[in-house]
Amino acid sequence: MENEALHLDEIVNWIDSAFGEELPAAAGEDVEAMTRIVGTAGFQRYFKDQVNRQIIRDYLTNAVVLGEITEGGLAAFASQMVSEESRAALALFMLMSSVEEAGDLPVASGDLEVLKPLAPVAKPRPHIKLVTS
User: Fold this and answer.
1) Mind spelling out the 3-state secondary structure of the chain?
2) pLDDT in tens, 69-127
3) 20 to 30 Å CA-CA from 49: which of 7, 40, 65, 81?
4) How far apart, in Å, are the Cα atoms of 76 and each of 39, 62, 71?
């Protein structure tokens, strides 16, 4: 089992190294100022919205490039892109769907509902059983 964990660690390490160096953070006195700004609830809300916008932008761009939706078909998503809450829901649907499913997203038919928290159901923890070949 240790070899299996090591293999996963190698994959994660390879992916991290493929990103290259991280962008430099502020140095010296700027670290305190950056910490004060980044630590605020307002910044976290702004950052989450920026991430959602990027997810939507990338997903829709890929869907158009791959021919899954047309440029004209982008208009079906417009109503879900105008508010922070609807962008969060749309981004979540997109993260959970392949680009090839773009035409099947509920938003394309106008059926996107506001997401509601699910009640947790007690069930056994998931586990992975590796099958060796």
Assistant:
1) CHHHHHHHHHHHHHHHHHCCCCCCCCCCHHHHHHHHHHCCHHHHHHHHHHHHHHHHHHHHHHHHHCCCCCCHHHHHHHHHCCCHHHHHHHHHHHHCCCHHHHHHCHHHHCCCCCCCCCCCCCCCCCCCCCCCC
2) 888 888 888 888 888 988 898 898 899 888 888 888 876 445 555 555 657 777 777 77
3) 65
4) 36, 16, 10
**Residue the block writes with tokens 């700027």:** 30
Would you say how long the chain is, in residues?
133
Tokens of 32: 């305190």
At 53, list the tokens: 């916008």
Reading the block at residue 12, the tokens are: 């994660």
Q: How far apart are CA 31 and CA 39, in angstroms?
A: 12
CA 31-50-17 angle, to 5 degrees, is 65
Dihedral angle, C-alpha 25, 26, 28, 30, nearest 10 °: -150
